[in-house]
Amino acid sequence: MIGALLAAVLGGMAGADLGMAELQQAYAAGRLSAEAVARAELARIAALDRAGPRLNSFIALDPTAIAQARQSDARRRRGQAGPLDGAPVAVKDNIEVAGGLPTTAGSLALAANFAAADATVVKRLRAAGAVILGKTNLSEWGNFRSTRAVSGWSAVGGLTRNPYALDRSACGSSSGSATAVAAGLAMVALGTETDGSIVCPAAAAGVVGLKPTLGLVPRTGVIPISPQQDTVGPIGRSVADVAAVLAVIAGSDPADPATQQADSRKADYLAALRPDALKGVRIGVLRGQVRGPPALDAVFDQALATLARAGAVLVPVDAPFRPRMEVLREAETAALRSEFRAAIGAYLAAAPPGVAVRDLKGLIAFDAASPRESALFGQEIFEAAAVAPAASAARENARRLAGPEGLDRMFERGRVSAIVAQTGAPAPVVDLVNGTAFLGSPSTLPAVAGYPHLTVPMGEVDGLPVGLSFIGPAWSDAQVLAYGFAFEQAAGVRLRPLFRPSVPPSPALAGVVDPR
Predict the structure, then answer these.
(1) Stretch 454-481: mean pLDDT, rounded?
(2) What count of Cα atoms within 13 Å lies in the side-chain half-sphere of residue 218?
(3) Which residues contact 24 (CB under 8 A, 6 or more apart)?
(4) Longest dimension (CA), the chain
(5) CA neighbor of 183 nearest in space, from 167, 200, 160, 211
């Protein structure tokens, strides 16, 4: 039996569908060991990430992974297994992991950024028994360096490839985390999001991703963009796996004031998952956020029909008018630039002695002098942030437009508990000259407001996965997960990655460059 399960893990078919609950059952029954699973995952990483299609989802592997797995097996023998014991987990490389792995955010400037301690979320993963396999690749600096950045590319890790079509974007910035989960290289992964960086790559990789309510999950030990928008969130192959990880990492942290309410707001996320969770629930339907081929709208309509069959009451809702959204995006941009300069300056000032760069101006100088850093795109965002004025008014304006005058108004007028929308278009072809194409997303409103945003696979367009977004009010993470779970169970959508070199591009995906 052990040989068959290992073959499944390595083969990426049945193993890729193995969920957290099934894994824990296999461990408890003695059909599998954490060491066997860790060895199988590392072998699969060698075959698919380092060789074969060369997905480049991992920047670095943890040399202690097998030792961690053996410790997990020992805990289980003593009857001390935690909720995630023996689960192979990947961590985005802007989240600190102690033990000899630098935390780089994909930048060569942080090649010597060896953390003395784990980030709070990593400590919680370890306490729950997870096996940290390694650090995943990302869009360098969380995609906050250039307006023409290539999603999924970093100077340290190179280009993360989409496992469904190797010439398509893996999106970003949590590209490596989503790709690793989709390809069966890790059961679950941690990503981070400021605006779209969990939900976009998760949708492009055909997996589940959650951006939690701001303040539910600690950011201590995470390289920042903005404390007003940054969140850590789980990525998995199912809503249940994402809920299991959220249950472990959520909660207050004295070192992160934003999480003051987290303990009192935290829920039993797994217990909330019911197949009938949508029955009688009013769900807002938001259209017009994504430009894509007609087939994308057809898949969305099929998803809406599935929601209706599951008992949801569908209610059309309208997004804020375009001029108001443009004002929101301008305010968000101004706020993020100012907040980034202060946050990254504080982070670099406290970095280990081996890190030579100590502020944003030092980063700009480092990149300008590094051929690899400047090979594909510049650093216009860095340069603008270095001279950006204080933007507290812009932050308040952005938050008001996104929350009280944006999502809150949509929830109230439609009397809806959550809103669904297309997460994004099918992944565009990678463009190393102009940067990543951007065809719209519903991510900005929940990102700026600080509300939960879940993406769940809803189907495929030309062999590429597309996601369905569930957006709820602040602290409604359990409900949003429950709605996503009910849809997932009713739809039964899971597109397996085939690692094809390419798929024919849709005309709707050509020639649009991300303007942000």
Answers:
(1) 98
(2) 22
(3) 81, 83, 85, 86
(4) 63
(5) 160
Cβ(191)–Cβ(209) under 8 Å? yes
- Please count the CA atoms within 13 angstroms of the CA of 270 that sit on its side-chain side: 10
Please give the DSSP secondary-structure letter assigned to residue 362.
Answer: H
Distance, CA of 222 to CA of 359 (rounded, Å): 16
Tokens for 463, please give them.
């062999």
CATH of domain 2-503: 3.90.1300.10
Which one-letter amino acid corresponds to residue 202? A
Query: CA-CA distances (angstroms) from residue 506 to 76, 433, 462, 464?
Result: 50, 19, 8, 11
> pTM for the full model?
0.95
* Cβ neighbour number for residue 402 with a 10 Å cutoff: 24
pLDDT at 12 over 50: no
β pairing state of 282-286 and 418-422 = parallel
pLDDT of 10 reads 43
Instruction: Name the residues annotated as catalytic.
Output: 92, 173, 197
Q: How many residues does the chain have?
A: 516
Q: Which is more confident, 49 or 505? A: 49
Helix (H, G, I), strand (E, B) or coil at 68: helix
Closest CA to 28 of 89, 85, 69: 85
The domain ranges of the chain are: 2-503
Q: Could you tell me how far CA 396 lies from the centroid of its own chain?
A: 26
Judged by DSSP in three states, 58 sits in strand
Structure tokens at 224: 């920042």
What pLDDT is recorded for position 17? 67
Distance of CA 129 to the CA centre of its chain: 21
Q: Is the per-residue pLDDT at 428 higher than 60? A: yes
Q: Which among 224, 230, 226, 227 is positioned nearest to 198, based on CA atoms?
A: 230
Distance CA 405, CA 398 (A): 10
DSSP letters for 323-349: HHHHHHHHHHHHHHHHHHHHHHHHHHH
User: 401: how many CB neighbours lie within 10 A of its CB?
Assistant: 23
Helix (H, G, I), strand (E, B) or coil at 453: strand
The one-character DSSP state at 50 is: S
Gap between the Cα atoms of 508 and 187, Å rounded: 33
